Amino acid sequence: LLPPLFYTTSSLALTGPLYFPYLARGGGGVEAALRRAAAPSLVLGITSDTLYHPSQQRELHAALVGLGQDSTYGDIVSEHGHDGFLLEFEQVAAHVTDFLARIEKDR
Question: pTM for the whole thing?
């Protein structure tokens, strides 16, 4: 077996700076950015994800709801870590389908 080339924390260190600044772009920080959400949000946590831990996803969902935003949370049960969103496509599809049906009904 070959040793892993990247560890989860290495990937976060390399990619985090690419994503995090965009969340609060325009000033005002993360809360201001979340207030600007113009569409309902579906936040999914993957039970074994150590890159973006489910507790962080629940925190994001709670922050959106706390700011009066329409947000839905769901868990993807997987033992594949962050790749669970790719490998557990049936669970992801079920959450997305339910979410879109709810949005359509609420229109």
Answer: 0.76
